[in-house]
Amino acid sequence: MNEHGERTAVMLEALSWLGTRYHRQADVKGAGVDCAMLLVRVYVDTGMIAPFDPRPYAVEWHLHQAAQRYVEWVERHCTRFDPAEIEPLGGDLVVVWFGKCFSHGGILVSRHDVVHAHARDRAVVQGHLDHEPFVSRQLAFYRPNRWVI
């Protein structure tokens, strides 16, 4: 499959999780998932990254520590890029600063639309980078290493 087909597969898989309830450290479509495990399931299940499981992880570490644990996992499989230099595409990943570090993530399904599991919304939802929780926070963009930057 070429990159376009892979990106389409990632976006469709991400969208298939819409409405799944938010549940910490879960990864069952239709039953429960959190933002970290949504990313793992989508990218692993579409074959974009090798299988791995970051669990267990502390629930609110981002409120009390500045360690970039979320980003450490992302950077094992993806490369950060500057959206001012490289256009973000569907299938890319965006991580969001909450608390003291980057600690939330989602999958782009267009340049500005992102699928993410958010505790406040209690489900996997489709949001927009120009709206909360993204607009007022620092963002970092990543691309799976199998797609050349």
UniProtKB/TrEMBL annotation:
Alphabetical UniProt keywords: Hydrolase, Protease, Thiol protease
Asked if the record carries the keyword Protease, the reply is yes
Give GO terms for biological process.
proteolysis
Instruction: Please list the GO terms describing molecular function.
Output: cysteine-type peptidase activity
Q: Which residues form the NlpC/P60 domain?
A: 4-146
Record flagged with keyword Transport: no
Which family is this sequence assigned to?
Belongs to the peptidase C40 family.
Protein name according to UniProt: NlpC/P60 domain-containing protein
